Amino acid sequence: MKKFLNAPETAVDDALAGLAAAHPELAVDRALRVVARASGARPGKVGLVSGGGSGHEPLHTGFVGPGMLDAACAGEIFSSPTPDRILAATRAAAAGAGVVHIVKNYTGDNLNFDMAAELAREEGIEVAKVTVADDVAVEDAGTAGRRGTGAALIVEKTAGARAEEGADLAAVVAVARQAAESSRSYAVALAAGTVPTTGRPSFELPDGLVESGVGIHGEPGRARAPLRPARDLAAAIADAVLADLPRRNEPVIALVNGLGATPLMELYVVYGHVAEELAHRGIAIARNLVGTYVTSLDTAGVSLTLCRADPALLRLWDAPVRTPALRWG
Amino acid sequence: MKKFLNAPETAVDDALAGLAAAHPELAVDRALRVVARASGARPGKVGLVSGGGSGHEPLHTGFVGPGMLDAACAGEIFSSPTPDRILAATRAAAAGAGVVHIVKNYTGDNLNFDMAAELAREEGIEVAKVTVADDVAVEDAGTAGRRGTGAALIVEKTAGARAEEGADLAAVVAVARQAAESSRSYAVALAAGTVPTTGRPSFELPDGLVESGVGIHGEPGRARAPLRPARDLAAAIADAVLADLPRRNEPVIALVNGLGATPLMELYVVYGHVAEELAHRGIAIARNLVGTYVTSLDTAGVSLTLCRADPALLRLWDAPVRTPALRWG
Amino acid sequence: MGELDTAAVLVWMHAATAAVAAHEAELTALDTAIGDGDHGTNLRRGFAAASLAAEDAAAAGTDPGPFLIAVGGALISSVGGAAGPLYGTVLRTAGKALEGPTADTAALAVALGAGLDALRRLGGAEVGDKTMVDAFAPAVDALRAAGDLPLAEAARLAADAAEEGMRSTTPLRARKGRASYLGDRSIGHQDPGATSTALVFRALAESLTTTVAT
Amino acid sequence: MGELDTAAVLVWMHAATAAVAAHEAELTALDTAIGDGDHGTNLRRGFAAASLAAEDAAAAGTDPGPFLIAVGGALISSVGGAAGPLYGTVLRTAGKALEGPTADTAALAVALGAGLDALRRLGGAEVGDKTMVDAFAPAVDALRAAGDLPLAEAARLAADAAEEGMRSTTPLRARKGRASYLGDRSIGHQDPGATSTALVFRALAESLTTTVAT
Ligand SMILES: Nc1ncnc2c1ncn2[C@@H]1O[C@H](COP(=O)(O)OP(=O)(O)O)[C@@H](O)[C@H]1O
Ligand SMILES: Nc1ncnc2c1ncn2[C@@H]1O[C@H](COP(=O)(O)OP(=O)(O)O)[C@@H](O)[C@H]1O
Ligand SMILES: [Mg+2]
Ligand SMILES: [Mg+2]
Ligand SMILES: [Mg+2]
Ligand SMILES: [Mg+2]
């Protein structure tokens, strides 16, 4: 394994130290691994908190700032943070108007966030939970349900904008739910990432094969398939997402996302074919984002997230955002 | 080789097609591989043009837009574009106030840009050239000189801001030269990238070794060294840059940059140690940028660029920028 | 017929901590195959913290019930992932069901039975879903069936049952937890959580052999 | 004693195009070792375009001088990288120095000598800097020395000299071009540009054997 790290055990802490050094506009509690806005919670604003295992950067710590999250909480690599830390993030975000927990749908994340919510409620903080479960690669019945992946970015961006403009808890939750329920994702990998503590790729993928339907924790996918031209892979990915995307007559926000080790050139190649594919099917892309945002360590792979967006959601997508990893407007 | 491409020969064109699809604010001439602002050249504004071989994305095509470049020109992977194409980009950027060519210092880039400048002058376009030669890993005497790498971003950002505020050609050139001459870079790689047409990594790097002083074209480095903790690598990189950085009593802009396949987590780890290292030496970091901006295909590696910046340069760095890959203010 | 006192629970926790640490790589390898490759690391870290909490509780002369509550809390606040809240809740719930300075086989069966119920409620998994429940439920059944056997012997039977339950997960298709994402591809792999559960029961049995006089 | 006419130059260009294409992988491998791995691809693409320009020029009945100017222009606008402007300028400058419908050995030596001068001016490289100059300069010297030999024979001597110059680059430390970044690590590798230059001179010699009656 070759990584720019000091030791597998210190990776998360050392990266947070770097984040703190680079971003004085963030308050980084290195002991609790909580990243919040240095400006503190704005009285009367609904607080937005997310978090989860590390290894998905810039998600979520890179999305803390005006227009997006109030606080994020980083767990060990691929392990949900513990309730006490999520509680600390919740406290940092609480400003009297309640806090939304944006939780990617994994057993561990659900359990730890639920326990934290319970503790926060005991302290008098109103907490609402919005679950992100967008990955169509996994079954959604009688199991742990769909995984939360790229849609987290869209949920955090739009709900963050709604909170920023002063909406109340119910209204922020409504936007977050709308974005979450309107989004679907699918990912393929060319090579698995390496969890530092294990030192070896999460799975071995022989030459000429892609892993189709991978998760963002090195979970192997639905199937192995031959490596095909980007055009065909993009079509297959779009097919998978569209098969399960709500069929409303709305344009989409399209996120073509690198899983950590995929160069931008390749992401744009994929985006071009996704755009062609959607055009063929008469689906308009109202907004797009191409880049490396929701990652899985150094996985070479790409994910597509589509979110059906009405004008209200598009307006929130367009609203100003000032975070380390996402800034516009 | 595993990449999201259709064929090695179409990689550059397919990526440009995706860029065009994703960014309606850009005018992408796919035949000439010229990317310009869709709004056209603003009459009376100095035009800024850069370009070079492809494989370094988002440099330069991702830096076209208000506050930065007017046009960029993409060559084949790692090969400078030809003079006719650079001429086309120059025409797209020309608005009566002259055009600055920002050229990374490579024999091929120099020759092709110089020929294009000659042709543009024959058409009555005033062209000034600013050479970026920041890579301290290579000798600077009796050779091709230092390579141009990460400093291109800083030059394009600051000169772009100066042009945007209406400065004349001499003033824009002065800023570009100041930024270029005040910047130094150094890069190390854990694994070489793969040029699509060759299908194999540019060099083989055995386990446990890093290539120190690599270029952004798969050029092997100064030396191979054992893989060390990020803290030590960061110190060595900072040492290399500082040894050759102008010794003015000014703070620096620090760019910790991924070479294409390096996760953000690792970049922040490195940034943290670079910041410590500079603090020890009493050098203030006035601004920083941590991310993947000046790449070398899917090279796993990191580069550090430091630029001594006076208040004027910092003001230009802070000025608004609206491009696919860099946006703030 | 020995009873479980605080000293014995402390030895159990140390034994479990040692077992988890010794099997960290194996647990992580199992989790790499059908999960995300962190179960060994999570549990090593968590049980190390739980051992410290256990020593503190023992030093304070805490009874087994509150002792397990403290240890469960330490697991929750140090493991992360799915296993932390699940194991932590099991121990906390079991602890709440224990009264007094010692527990015999029947009392332990009741306490761990309450823990199992909490585990099933919290995680929603039943036997056959390829989770730690597959090892935990048969272990509790064995304890219950051994209600009048000496504790050390009952614990051995529970550990045997847990290990059999652990092995029974291999041919199963996962319906809960991260392995469920794999669908049919989860078949043929032993569940990491069931494996760690078997380790914890074996640690109980072995620690009782040394600590509980018969 | 044969002279070089437009038909012969066309055959030369086709031969050079074929040679570069046949050696693309080798040129790229040399450039991967001490450069950026694109010299073969660059030249294959460039000579393919140059061949088309050459056919157009030949079809238009252009004399060798303007013919080489057109071919050089095609190289400049299709190769990219360092090699495009360098090779293109050589041919353009050589073309400017050629007058009339044919050229003998001495005229070709003068023309390619002018091309070499332009190459040295443009790139700033001298013999010994480990560039295409190391193959080009001895080839021009050989042509000059063979001023009164038949063209085909003179071209063979030039190709021999170019190849010797090419091989002489191996022990050199690069002082120009991308290989100069390697410093001492460039030693022991043959220069890709010198290699392609030798191919182009060998293509001249071989094409003349077939096209120029002696
Ligand atoms: N819903 C559940 N109910 C019971 N046990 C579960 C459930 N989900 C997961 N598990 C257990 O947790 C184990 C995985 O733990 P761990 O790897 O630490 O957490 P994570 O899956 O969050 O990485 C699985 O092997 C399984 O035995
Ligand atoms: N300054 C120079 N003068 C003469 N020849 C040069 C010079 N720089 C480079 N070359 C030649 O160009 C060759 C490399 O060409 P190529 O790989 O196509 O361009 P690039 O280096 O831009 O990738 C080198 O092997 C060398 O022979
Ligand atoms: Mg986990
Ligand atoms: Mg090149
Ligand atoms: Mg796990
Ligand atoms: Mg080259």
UniProtKB/TrEMBL annotation, chains A, B:
Q: Which PROSITE patterns match?
A: DHAK (PS51481)
Residue ranges constituting the DhaK domain according to the UniProt record: 7-328
**Lineage top rank: taxon:** Bacteria
Looking up InterPro entries in the UniProt record yields: DhaK_1, DhaK_dom, Dihydroxyacetone_Kinase
Q: Which SUPFAM superfamilies match?
A: DAK1/DegV-like
Instruction: Supply the Gene3D superfamilies for this chain.
Output: Dihydroxyacetone kinase, domain 1, Dihydroxyacetone kinase, domain 2
An example molecular function term from Gene Ontology annotations: kinase activity
**Alphabetical keyword list:** Kinase, Transferase
Entries under NCBIfam families matching the protein: dhaK1
Q: Which PANTHER family match?
A: TRIOKINASE/FMN CYCLASE (PTHR28629), TRIOKINASE_FMN CYCLASE (PTHR28629:SF4)
- The name on file for this protein is Dihydroxyacetone kinase subunit DhaK
Automatic annotation (TrEMBL), chains C, D:
Look up the domain of life of the source. Bacteria
Gene name in the database record: dhaL
Q: Which residues form the signal peptide?
A: none
Location of the DhaL domain: 7-206
Keywords attached to this entry: Kinase, Transferase
Q: Which SMART domains match?
A: Dak2
Whether Transferase counts among this entry's keywords is yes
Q: What is the official name of this protein in its record?
A: Dihydroxyacetone kinase subunit DhaL
Q: What is the lineage of its organism?
A: Bacteria, Bacillati, Actinomycetota, Actinomycetes, Kitasatosporales
Entry keyword annotation includes Kinase: yes
This entry's Gene Ontology molecular function terms read:
kinase activity
Pfam families per the UniProt record, alphabetical: Dak2
